[in-house]
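Quick one:
INPUT:
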């Protein structure tokens, strides 16, 4: 099926639904045509009908912008003389079309993903390539379907460049057989995921694939300098990336604290019955110890705070950890490297359930209301982890630690320690309402599907 049919199908569905909504609210023909022209013009301007690959929160952002502009235009163009009821109908029409446009776009992308998605080959087998493939194939909204990978380690043509191979359970081709991969997999797009490669390697790869696919993308090595406020500039033929590392402004802090207060109140209200449930589960399993515990963590500006959690381990878990590390060198090495144990024997049966559902974090809403933590923020690090945080410590402590954050939304316990620090550093440099919304969405998705639970 021709990929260009998707925006046509989307436009047709939205036009039909818009017409029926106007009929429902009994709008006259002139207002229906005029407002409809404005609405679809804004959708077009903000890229709603673009075939560019994007994730669902990018689509939501585009629709919010176009709907907001449409609503403002209606307020200006439709006279107040039309009456309160008619203006309320127009408001409901904007909200209805926002929901319809989002659902229609999502339905078409998911239902026809096999036909519309670009068949993609990733050059690279390292961590970045694996993560790129996972994001592309796990997110049904995106129109990128990774069919295979190219291993650059088995060729002498790339000036000795080597990369760790962590790709598993996927089709992997040697670089010398890249043409065969393109033909066999019917590749339409190639993504070069070699961020550590030098310019000679990139030039060689670009030369070898030139003209063989419809689109070529590459993952740059930006060393953490790229932010949401960065932009690509064409400086008379030279590609420049303008970056910005702005801190939160006063209004930003007010908005974030307001959200924290609201979520904190809801969290505390739900915490009370939850405590009874957790106590019941522990008593039923024969464990009569305290279900709550507090622990020292690093707060904003390096100040020590006590966070509250439901106990998910046996009593005296810290002392047990010291004993285990003394007796088993492999356990000691694993914990010192990742600051956690993958199969931690100290976790109770009830604790596994609490961690899988993230209910063990629920008492931290008390910390949120107290102003010590935020609903979304960097991970609350242990005092003994300060040295291991390295260069990221100074940026991470500029924000309040959060109940959830970048690392929980991007793999949770599957993310190794250094990468957690990088994600929290990224969050500090890139904070926005949209980023918080994305983290909330991804956290809920991770909890519901139980992926990467602690």
């Amino acid at each position: 099926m021709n990929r260009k049919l998707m925006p046509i199908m989307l436009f047709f569905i939205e036009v039909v639904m818009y017409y029926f909504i106007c009929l429902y609210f009994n709008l006259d023909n002139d207002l229906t045509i005029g407002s409809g022209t404005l609405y679809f013009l804004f959708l077009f301007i903000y890229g709603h009908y673009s075939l560019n690959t994007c994730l669902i929160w990018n689509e939501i952002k585009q629709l919010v912008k176009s709907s907001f502009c449409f609503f403002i235009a209606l307020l200006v163009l439709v006279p107040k003389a039309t009456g309160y009821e008619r203006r309320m109908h127009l408001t409901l029409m904007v909200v209805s079309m926002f929901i319809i446009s989002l659902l229609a776009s999502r339905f078409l992308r998911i239902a026809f993903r096999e036909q519309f998605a670009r068949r993609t080959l990733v050059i690279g087998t390292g961590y970045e390539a694996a993560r790129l493939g996972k994001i592309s194939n796990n997110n049904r909204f995106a129109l990128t379907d990774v069919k295979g990978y190219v291993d650059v380690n088995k060729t002498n043509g790339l000036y000795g460049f080597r990369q760790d191979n962590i790709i598993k359970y996927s089709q992997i081709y040697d670089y010398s057989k890249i043409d065969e991969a393109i033909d066999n997999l019917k590749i339409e797009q190639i993504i070069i995921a070699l961020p550590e490669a030098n310019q000679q390697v990139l030039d060689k790869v670009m030369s070898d694939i030139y003209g063989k696919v419809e689109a070529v993308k590459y993952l740059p090595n930006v060393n953490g300098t790229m932010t949401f406020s960065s932009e690509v500039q064409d400086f008379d033929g030279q590609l420049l990336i303008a970056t910005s590392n702005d801190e939160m402004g006063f209004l930003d802090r007010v908005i974030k604290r307001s959200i924290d207060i609201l979520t904190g109140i809801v969290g505390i209200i739900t915490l009370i019955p939850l405590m009874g449930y957790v106590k019941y589960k522990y008593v039923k399993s024969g464990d009569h110890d305290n279900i709550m515990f507090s622990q020292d963590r690093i707060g904003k500006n390096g100040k020590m705070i006590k966070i509250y959690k439901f106990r998910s381990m046996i009593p005296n878990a810290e002392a047990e950890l010291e004993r285990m590390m003394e007796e088993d060198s492999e356990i000691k090495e694993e914990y010192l490297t990742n600051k956690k144990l993958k199969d931690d024997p100290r976790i109770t049966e009830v604790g596994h359930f609490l961690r899988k559902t993230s209910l063990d974090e629920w008492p931290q809403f008390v910390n949120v209301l107290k102003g010590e933590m935020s609903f979304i923020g960097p991970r609350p690090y242990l005092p003994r982890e300060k040295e291991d945080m390295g260069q990221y410590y100074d940026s991470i402590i500029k924000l309040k630690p959060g109940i959830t954050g970048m690392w929980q939304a991007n793999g949770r316990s599957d993310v190794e320690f250094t990468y957690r620090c990088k994600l929290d550093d990224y969050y500090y440099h890139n904070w926005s309402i949209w980023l918080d919304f994305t983290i909330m969405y991804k956290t809920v998705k991770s909890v519901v599907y139980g992926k990467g639970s602690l």
